[in-house]
Specification:
single chain; alpha/beta; Rossmann fold; Phenylalanyl-tRNA Synthetase, Chain B, domain 1; seven-stranded mixed β-sheet; three-stranded antiparallel β-sheet; 13 helices; 23% strand; tRNA binding; methyltransferase; tRNA processing
Length: 377
């Protein structure tokens, strides 16, 4: 007899057979909750009749939550696998939202182009592929509505972190490196790629929120039109010194350097990538107001995450892992909060980062940070 497992996520119940090749990742629940909250913010912008689309629906969890919790009037849910689509439809029936979800089984790029051809133009478009989102970015841009949101996933963390550099160059046209801040750099590469694709169509993507959950990057972008507003000055590179761990960022249009200003070692160049903010402050505040209804452990987790994101705004496009710095100067790893306090007392800007529990974003140099850290013990 075929065995099925019952999962509960938010207000949704999900049945998945152990024999069916349908992927469901419970670790992605918080990223999906953030998507639901973003959809609620979007309803304030456009009113009640919000249309969403899910290009890789899988088990149907996102599409169902967007209806039940996000309040979408209709969701266009697609998966190239007929097996996945059967599961998703069954789960939509289980959750009594089948009439508000329109299912299709097409290759994902064809699905996105079909939205444009039919002039559906969803307000909220979810792109959650396995691997790189780069092949789908152009179709997603052209299928999306002006002022709407595109929520993309990147799971190809090895290439983005410099382990398979040739794959990163092939997918993003970018150089990567194995650094302690590679997940942030990877997010910036994804956003930078999206911006360059949008620029070809006299458009741009405004980053509203960037989230790293330990296994994937989730990036929420707002679609805008206008070649005059293209943020070319915010596309550039970060550079990392493999010897002394100094790091810096510079614009593509600015002066480039290939030698470390501290020790003259040849720098590892990362990019092109996005140098601007990963989050929008006003959007995060609106997200906080929507998240206030969550209580208990989940509510505290969302609030803590949004606070860290807010602290990242306006900071340099990298961070320092203080455990790595401690190893470099041969001291015990001090309290992250204590190091931040000392940096601020010394006149530097400093904050935690959600990318790494031991990470600190600061405008202090690596040498200034290393000098301060022993005093935090």
């Amino acid at each position: 007899m075929e065995r099925e497992r019952l999962f509960t996520e938010g207000s949704v119940k999900l049945l998945i057979s152990e024999k069916e090749p349908v992927f469901y990742n419970p670790r992605g629940a918080l990223a999906r909750t953030l998507g639901v909250l973003a959809l609620r913010v979007l309803r304030d912008n456009f009113g009640e009749a919000i249309i969403a689309a899910d290009a890789f629906t899988g088990s149907g969890i996102r599409a169902i939550r967007y209806v039940k919790e996000g309040g979408a009037l209709r969701v266009y849910a697609n998966d190239s696998s007929p097996f996945a689509l059967e599961v998703a439809e069954r789960n939509a029936l289980l959750n009594k939202v089948r009439s508000r979800i329109k299912f299709s089984s097409r290759e994902s790029i064809r699905f996105l182009w079909s939205l444009k051809e039919r002039e559906v133009f969803p307000h909220f478009l979810d792109i959650d592929p396995y691997g790189s989102p780069a092949p789908f970015m152009e179709a997603a841009l052209l299928a999306s509505r002006i002022g709407g949101y595109v929520y993309i996933t990147a799971t190809d963390l090895a290439p983005l972190c410099g382990i398979r550099r040739e794959a990163a160059f092939r997918n993003y046209g970018a150089l990567t490196a194995r650094t302690d801040f590679c997940h942030e750099a990877g997010a910036r590469i994804v956003i930078g790629t999206a911006q360059r694709i949008a620029g070809r169509h006299a458009s741009l993507f405004r980053p509203l929120m960037t989230y790293y959950d330990g296994s994937a990057l989730r990036i929420l972008l707002r679609t805008e039109r206008g070649r005059e507003n293209f943020p070319g000055d915010l596309i550039g590179f970060t550079a990392h010194c493999p010897r002394c761990k100094h790091r810096t960022g510079f614009r593509m249009k600015g002066k480039w350097t290939v030698r470390c200003e501290k020790c003259s070692t040849e720098l590892e160049i990362i990019g092109p990538l996005w140098l601007g903010d990963l989050h929008d402050r006003e959007f995060l505040e609106r997200l906080k107001s929507k998240a206030a209804e969550y209580d208990g452990r989940e509510g505290r987790k969302i609030a803590g995450l949004l606070d860290k994101m807010e602290g990242e705004i306006g900071m340099p496009p990298y961070y320092f892992d203080i455990a790595r710095v401690s190893d470099m100067i041969d001291v015990r790893t001090p309290s992250t909060e204590k190091v931040i306090e000392l940096l601020k007392r010394a006149g530097f800007r400093a904050s935690r980062t959600h990318f790494n529990g031991r990470g600190i974003k600061t405008d202090a140099s690596i040498s200034a940070l290393a000098d301060l850290m022993p005093r935090a013990l």
